[in-house]
Amino acid sequence: LVELSGERLSEEFRKILLCRDPAGICTLMGGERAFSHILPEARSDVGRLRTLQWLEQDAIRFDSVRPESLRRLAALVRADAAGVAAIVARFKLSNQEASRLHDVVTTDWQPSFETGEVEMMRALRRMPREVVRDIVLIEWATQLSLQPRRRTAETEGWQRVLAYIDDWQAVEFPLRGQDVLDLGIAPGPDV
To answer: pTM of the entire structure?
Structure first.
């Protein structure tokens, strides 16, 4: 395992994360101490990954929610910024993937089934839509893994939050620099 290239390691681990039961395989890998070599940032408890996989594949029906290896990787690890940087280097992730993994794993934002439109709007203005979706799904999976039996209102609340992410449209600032110039303001740094 230690001798595998980062690209090969990433490719094979993505396949594992996208299989029907990634949590079961990760449990076996943890038992064989494979994670100490390839992913020391992995959580010993894979309940969150198992629940995320269930949400993605069986529990909810949103076109935007499908199994994604990067989201599942984020659900599997516990790391700070330095830990994420080590994962990125080890798995040879692209800049876009590195940014997404960093934003999801190191976020301090904790959505809930009660998260309102204003807070969702703020999150969607600060972070890309797929990052917000990942954070919401992982937090929902975390809550379900801690206490599986939840009220129907909570499930409906999480689905409402996901629907808001899908429906949200960024509002463009209505003015452009040309509009200011058209008012007779001289071109320059003030414009």
So the answer is: 0.86
